[in-house]
Amino acid sequence: MAVITAAAGGQSSAIQAKRPLFSTLWSNYPVKMAAPDVYGLVGGQALALYKENPTGYANACALRLSRSLNYGGMPIKQSTKGYKVKGSDNKPYLLRVREMITFVEQNLGKADIAFKPKNNEDVSSQLREKKGIIIFKVSGWGDASGHVTLWNGSDCGDSCYFIHSTPNVRTTDIFFWNLR
């Protein structure tokens, strides 16, 4: 997170910004990295669980964002509620989307932009040239309630789930937190 110095009338004060810098999160995000490699990068209990049950732990989106947050200025604490495991760096990592949503909301407040996507044009007009954390709530997936990732202004850090080609799977809501 950034420290901003405000000055007026010959006095100055340091203000701690509540949001991490997008560039710091992005540089610590395993961009387009396959799930097995993300588990290998994090190591520790996360990797052990993946090796024990690769199918059950095939989804790594919350792990990716956890790593980015841990090294990007908004660390996940031991006291954070939810299913978390330790990486080889002894840092806690969240593994479930619904708990990552709670963590992001508790730390950044309500989403700056929230909408129900109708088509790809709708999405691009809402998020064009913005950067931040994006969360997709998805119905119809058997193993996940959604997807969390970073949005760089034109693409997601791993996968985007705006519109689905599978009829029984659909993105019901998109939540976006703008970061500078």
TrEMBL record:
Q: Which Gene3D superfamilies match?
A: 3.90.1720.70
Tell me the keywords, alphabetical order: Plasmid
Give the domain of life.
Bacteria
Its recorded name reads Type VI secretion system amidase effector protein Tae4
